[in-house]
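ugh ok so i messed up the first submission bc i forgot one of the chains. this is the corrected input, ALL of the components this time, i swear. 934 residues overall. if the numbers dont match what u have on ur side tell me asap before i send this to the collaborators (the ones from the other lab, u know who)
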Amino acid sequence: MPALLEISDLKIQARKDDGSAIEIVKGVSFNVEAGQVVALIGESGSGKTTISLAALAYSKPGLELAGGEVRLNGEDILQMEPLAVRDLRGRRVAYLAQSAAATFNPALKIGEQVTESSVLHGILTQEQADERAEALYRALELPNPDRMGGRYPHQVSGGQLQRLMAAMALCGKPDLLVLDEPTTALDVTTQIEVLKAFKKVIQEEGSAAIYVSHDLAVVAQIADYIVVLYGGEIMEQGPADQIINRPSHAYTRRLMATARPARAAEAKGEARGAHHKATPAIRVKDLTAGYGGIAGGEPAVTILRDVNVQVERGEAVGVIGESGCGKSTLARVVAGLLPAARGDVLLDGQALNPSVKGRRREELQKIQFVFQMADTALNPKQRLGNILGRPLAFYGNLRGKEKRLKVAELLRMVELPPEFAYRYPHELSGGQKQRVNLARALAAGPEVLLCDEVTSALDTIVGANVIELLKGLRENLGVSLVFISHDLSTVASFADKIVVLYAGRVVEQGPVERVLSPPYHPYTRLLITSVPEMRIGWLEESLATREAAAGIARDVKMTATGCPFYSRCPLAIDGLCDQETPPVREDTTGHQISCHHSLTQNDPVRGDRYAANGAAASI
Amino acid sequence: MWPMVLRRIGIGFVLIWVVSVLIFLVTQVLPGDAAEIRLGQAATPETLAALRKELGLDQPAVIQYAHWIGDLLTGDLGISAAGGATIASLIENRIGNTVFMTAVVTVVSIPLSILLGLLAAMYPGGLIDRAVTFSTLGLIAVPDFLIAIVLILVLAVQAGLVPAVSYLSGSESFWKKLSILALPIATLVIVVSAQMIRMTRAGVLNVMSSPYVEMAILKGVPRRRIILRHALLNAIGPIVNVIALNLAYLVSGVVVIETIFAYPGLAKLMVDGVQTRDMPIVQACGMIFCSTYVVLILIADIASIVSNPRLRHPK
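and heres the new structure output, hopefully the right one now
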């Protein structure tokens, strides 16, 4: 009996402007058996998405299916008539895209979009489809399944949309699902819920799936079979157990290594930080900030509340938390892009004007911002030489030859050849653009670099290279780094200090090794236990623990009273945690945890080192 | 959403007020006043002074403005400085003609533009698309008076199908009127539609490259449904804006066209008013044109607010 999907010697090429073709996918062959989940992994440019779309006989604009066969139940779908292909899509093969937020039509109700395909294909009547959709919402553990269909995409959260997309794909009962990085854009705590929902529904529906991802640890939780791709070719393929536990190809081993930089540099020691007791480079004092008009020190929408953070000279501080917790807002306040409602930002001990407009040139020079999206941060109409030359002229007053030499030096600093000065941003790869973005910030000669999710849009390997670069820059130039990320392992790999934000408040901060080892704030523990581990069966184990159970499907509330984490905390004490602001408990290394629970309770061995200050004492 | 709509309406009123101030100021700065025009050769310093007093022209500008705007708000448009007839009656004679012409142009050009725009967007680079793109780009580049003159030359002078001058006596039937007005209407439809077609096409194509349209393709949704249901609904905001801008242009475009075809509309009245320095008429017509403009833009603004589901259904 033939496999459900047989891809043999698939070739896909891109056509350049001059008409010549480049091969993107170079003769790939693999099978998907009925009921099996096959993962395609590799970094961007490996062709994994392109290959997965061939299962729907589709290629992105600019690409063409150049050769080979894609047999679905023995029939080559690449040779089908357009009408037959349309009938196949959504009926026999369904697609789930990476960003549900972009994939849902903003102008149509969710119900219509979920049921559209199965009704159009005549599989179900509108009523049957509505019923099935509701059953799927229920199976995917979405809130208010009976009313979900009547809502618009912007009215539900990102994690919910991602699950709704699964409902959209499954509504027509397809034989094969194609999932393209379906959890990559999500927070770790949300990812775990979505993964669980996907796995459950795929098992219940018995459909086969192609799961595209760059994250081996995620793949380990869901795949039966893994295909490792690089540059449009298969490096290695085999059962999940074999690839995860006994990878034979060097590239697979490299992927494994970069995917999980060993949790917390335990060996880092506590000595670092002791020698710079001088004035901190940046000090954020009792800061409250948000959007909308400010009345009586309170913004209309408060994003950050009473935040105290310190960045020593030459120190790297990682700021982590789920999306919406205020990480980026903190950086924007420090940079003066968003004036604070209350509190101060001190640079070298001097209070800064809250707004960038009121700051002096030297102050602006010392704090530089590196934005997440290098694509939008770099002017597409300017050559790199101009992009880097502008801050040199503005802050350093450099002209002519001096400026050209300095541009070349900056490019060298971020490991790019000096000829790049004559290139435009669109001629660069994503990783190269992010390097230029960094170089632009360095051109000012800053003391503090604010890096806002600078590696989030990059692949694991490319991202790891950018991190290496940042480490080197910090050592050579002595700049302080504020590194914002939702990815704990990235932060842990090179920061000295971690600040954990939740709903706009600092719940825990301190040296990396302290934050990442007990005693924990309950939220930090949830974050740590949500990061997938590279072993089969981790998902089930982790779901069994109460931390994960607590994190599921609860909304984050921005409250002024009590502990912000109250509604999701497994250890919450009714009547206390929801009423009173938790005390800040601190040990001698500057490790602070805001929690009503005494840390002895949290960690009997090390907990008694923490002295409580603030409202309530230990319980 | 409603506070936003109300705000826009408020801004619309403010805008019309600013326009009234500007119109008044401009007519103040222009050399010569109504008294000089009316007296013409017979003007002596004494008669001028007397007439100025009678017309209130000797008072400070602020008082004159207050009088004018007060009268305007109570529906009194004033008296023509040149002829002595009430402006209301002059406008009454003409406004119907202008409204008739622009209404016909609107009714023809909007469906035509959306249809052609969608057809072009259906298969970009196809035969229909290339034909539409070629002709619209060509027509956008040609000024409206030239199109009018070419149409007169070909259809009226050489072929003799329709009259070259659009004079109405007032007693014609609807169809007779249409045939008399065929040339100015055709000119305006061509000028206005060319832009609207381009923008409809661009708006829909822009949406067609979005991830949710790709998703619809991968769900096996037929192309026609993708365009009509998925793309058009999202492109409606920008399209309505372009339509409003073009209708607003239409209001000013009629000035040229009415003059070329000697059509007795509002614009012709205004142009005549400028020639005879009849400031009250210029002011009144200016106010009508500008208010129409503001109202059209306001409608477009409100339409794009209402067509946005994020504003219609907040979280």
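quick check: Chain A touches chain B at residues 53, 56, 58, 61, 86-91, 94-95, 97, 99, 102-108, 116-117, 120-121, 151-152, 154-155, 168 (CB under 8 Å). that seems consistent at least. The radius of gyration of chain A is 26 Å.
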